[in-house]
Predict the 3D structure of the following.
Amino acid sequence: MFDRIIFKNQTGYSPLVDVGAIAEALLFYGHVSIIANSGTIKYLLTQIPTFVFLDLVRSKRIMLFYVSDQVGIRTTERQGHLPLHDLVTAAHHRQSAAGGVLREDSE
């Protein structure tokens, strides 16, 4: 039998993490580990009241392992010029039910 579980954010159109599965795992295992980037943490804080989440982290029932957002190079082809290369970070963007988009881009 397993004695621990680790959650990592999902990709695609599903929620970043399944908060219900985290709650069930807390009941079954007593503690869980979550590998999270900034988008996952923001999502968790919209689903779990902040004081509850912080209490779970402080009591070590949730072990949070932060990984920075992905960094990459964006290349823009320019006709008649050399390509332009930019350093970019990829962050998760979630669409709310109201149709707004959570964004923290500098652009």
